[in-house]
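Supplementary notes for students who missed Thursday's class. We covered one full example, reproduced here. Read the sequence, then the structure, then the short commentary at the end.
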Amino acid sequence: MSISRIDLGPGGTEYRGTFVTFDFPHTEERPAQITLRFSLTHDEPIEQLILGYNLEMVPIFLQFKAHDDLALPVDKVDGAAVIDWFDRCVLEFTRTYLDMQFNP
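Structure (token representation):
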């Protein structure tokens, strides 16, 4: 597993934010390459923060939730909502990870 952080900014890049990526390489126990990315971005007028969850799996041999977003107003970030969303995403990933290992 590797963890990387990328900060994107101006310089012609339209998509700005912070990304934390977890890479899980293919192994005998885990027959797929998995990339899990959490992101923190904002909308164009910078009125909402957008938390993102993206899960990629190659090859795909089971159904899983690949994407989820949580948008929050910049001036009223609800910490409890962020924690709840993050917990749901981590549980979803854990289910998918374990399903993959026990899927015939």
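Commentary. The mean pLDDT is 84. Helices lie at 79-102. If anything here is unclear, bring it to office hours.
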